[in-house]
Prior knowledge:
The structure is a single chain. This protein has about 250 residues and is α+β, with helices and mostly antiparallel strands. It has 2 domains: about 80 residues, Orthogonal Bundle (Arc Repressor Mutant, subunit A); about 160 residues, 3-Layer(aba) Sandwich (Chorismate lyase), CATH 3.40.1410. It has 9 helices and 10 strands. The strands form 3 sheets. The chain has a 6-stranded antiparallel beta sheet. The protein has a two-stranded antiparallel ribbon with strand order 1-2. A two-stranded parallel sheet has the order 3-10. α3 packs across α4. It is elongated, with a radius of gyration of 23 Å.
Amino acid sequence: MTETARTLSPLSSVPLHSQLRDLLRGRILDGEYAPDSQMPSESELGATFKVSRITVRQALGDLQKEGLIFKIHGKGTFVSKPKAFQNVSTLQGLAESMTGRGYEVINRLRSFRFVPADKLVAERLNVAEGEIVTQIRRVRLINREPISLEVTWLPKHLGERLESADLVTRDIFLILENDCGLSLGHADLAIDAVLADSDLTQALDVETGSPIMRIERLTHTADGQPVDFEHLYYRGDAFQYRLRIDRHREAQ
């Protein structure tokens, strides 16, 4: 432990609590502190790294804000489970992306309705405002835990094809491709954040006002026709969207 303590430098311009936070974060991400395992106590960390209890509390407070640890009153500090994530560099449904990495994805179908298109839906699907479209609302569960509420709008003729489809275990993308014979091309995404209202609170088992990541996704067929418009509401404490972005330089 003495060797580890020397990784903190009192002479550094970086505050001690930041140094300790970064060191502990590295241990968590490297798996040295496993998910659901109990962290050393504040006094143990202070003794190991030769820092004050206030410094330890500041470091742990930062890690808690990052969602890497959580505290149980009277029991101590524990390592959080890693968030499930979906790589959005390719166009895939949630189950298509997650099941290949060992996650179980199932859905709770909340409603399947034919509704008049409001202004936004009409613009996205390129139909007349008030025209009947299909609306599907599903809660997506990863390993039996509710992760997202998915609200999907489709043209009516496609919705009629999906009415008898298995919406509990299958991605809508795969149903459109395999059952409806569509070739999907690309999707446009917009991401922002909202606070959980009563509907999201009930669907995702979160507290009112919890931060929710909202993704608006409009998927087109290979020939460019808008076919699937969605609002995806993800629990911010349990899921990540990941994306790789390359920097392109012009040839000199």
